Amino acid sequence: MNEGRKEPLAIFGAGWVGLVTGACFAELGHEVVIRDVVPEKIERLRAGKLSFFEPELAELVERNGERLTFTLDAAEAAEAAELLFVCVDTPPTYSGDADLSRVWTVIDELPQLERRPILVMKSTVPVGTGEKVRAALEARGRSDVGYVSNPEFLAEGGAVNDFLHPDRVVVGSFAEADGDRVAALYEKLEAPIVRADVASAEMIKLAANAFLATRISFINEIANVCEVTGADVEKVAEGVGLDHRLGPHFLKAGVGYGGSCFPKDASALKQLASNSGYHFQLLSAVIEVNELQKRRVINKLQKHLGRLRGKRIALLGLAFKANTDDMREAPSIVLASRLLAEGAEVRAYDPVAKPGDLVSGMTTSKSVAEAVRDADAAVIVTEWDEFRSLASPEIRDAMRRPLIIDGRNLLDPEAARSVGFTYEGIGRASSLLSELPQTDEPARRETSSAESAEHSSRE
Ligand code: UGA
């Protein structure tokens, strides 16, 4: 390769990971060929259209149009570059394992090449996949093909920024030189590069997501305890997060985590462990807490409305988090389905997400005002900015009952109450307090001077 010329790259899979990766590498100056098996997707991309919403991505694709090529032809992509990024879906199977069939398809489609190709795995895969791929390549007489694990740490809604300003880049390789090639691509980003063996790189990705999910379930349980003890989880998270050993991130209590990553990766890691005979107890609890958390909103509604049959509930937000149109594993789906099963009427509104017929029986509205009209309650499910102004006199007057269940602690409880709303958030002091069990103070008794000396020395 000429000095100064950027290494050309090929990307297999024009989904969210593939497209963000491809567009960002193009932004860094690489020629990138992106290959997908779906003709409509490739046609749309050639016409400059994305089939999902990700801030900044459309601009990036447009700006780097000259360096981005889209193709249906696996051979064309493989021949264009030596580093072949695998960015295909690895959805969970019924057993909770990751489905690697699309990864195998990429390998099966690799043509014989003059140059030595290196597969770079971006997709999240179980630990041990690299070894399996290496064995599969050898079995096919393709031991010439290199393999590097380079997991992605992109969060939806901020993926372009995550790619261009990463906390770290992880590169796991069998051969040092292959890892060097991949690590060199990221040098310009000035992020720490963690070099590792392939299995450790694969585990870093799963462990990071499982740890983040654990933090969320942990703070959600703290929130639930706050509700029965009169503490406020927002304050608690602030105080806990300022400990530099803990940090402030992923301590936002809410309706539970969703999306295409945490639920899938937590279950894949749990499954991976149990396949090898290890019961990952903590992770099992994290997953269970999350399932229960989604359903707690129903109890809150019942507390105020009694039976939900015939009640009209406005669901505000469908996406699994703000700044994305993604509804995969979104808490809104479970919530809407539970409400419908209770006989409630569900009217949903999301500024971007389009549910289609994902939840049959739910109607969608074009605005907050339309969703809340004559509603018995409004439930904030996604933290979209436009819901911050929900507690207004106009909304109060439009509702049949001015009840807000704030599943994201987006509003100021006092401000909402002062407008006349009944307000309940997650883990915030609420009327549940009145149901606290009375605990009598222990009877006073005379303390000996030795006991009081010990007490004061600890204070
Ligand atoms: C997550 C990770 O953050 C990325 O680092 C990772 O690369 C990605 O998965 C992946 O494996 O591809 P993502 O699922 O896009 O990214 O979204 P997050 O912003 O992490 O949020 C996940 C869920 O947790 C959302 O439902 C969000 O509402 C919830 N969450 C997050 C909370 O309930 N509380 C928090 O404090 C933070």
List the topology elements.
Layout (H helix, E strand, L loop, with lengths): L8 E4 L3 H12 L4 E4 L3 H8 L10 H7 L4 E4 L2 H7 L2 E4 L14 H9 L8 E4 L7 H11 L6 E4 L9 H6 L4 E5 L2 H10 L7 E4 L1 H32 L3 H9 L20 H14 L5 H25 L6 E5 L14 H11 L3 E5 L13 E2 L3 H5 L4 E4 L12 H6 L4 E4 L6 H6 L3 E3 L24 H10 L1
Helix pairs in contact: 1-3, 9-11, 9-12, 11-12, 12-13
The structure holds uridine-5'-diphosphate-glucuronic acid.
Uridine-5'-diphosphate-glucuronic acid binds next to helix 9 and helix 11.
Explained architecture:
By secondary structure, this protein is an alpha/beta fold. It has two domains: 9-196, NAD(P)-binding Rossmann-like Domain (Rossmann fold, 3-Layer(aba) Sandwich), CATH 3.40.50; 197-438, 3-Layer(aba) Sandwich (Rossmann fold). Helices cover 41% and strands 12% of the residues. The strands form two sheets. It has an eight-stranded mixed sheet with strand order 3-2-1-4-5-6-7-8, sandwiched between helices. A six-stranded parallel sheet has the order 11-10-9-12-13-14. Uridine-5'-diphosphate-glucuronic acid (UGA) binds next to helix 9 and helix 11.
CATH class of the largest domain: Alpha Beta
How many extended strands? 14
Structural class: alpha/beta
Number of structural domains: 2
Radius of gyration: 26 Å
**Adjacency order of strands in the biggest sheet:** 3-2-1-4-5-6-7-8
Shape: globular
Bound small molecules, by name, code or SMILES, are: uridine-5'-diphosphate-glucuronic acid
CATH topology term of the largest domain: Rossmann fold
Let me know the CATH homologous superfamily of the largest domain.
Answer: NAD(P)-binding Rossmann-like Domain
* Total count of helical runs of at least 4 residues: 17
* Uncertain regions spanning at least 5 consecutive residues: 449-459
Share of residues in helices: 40-55%
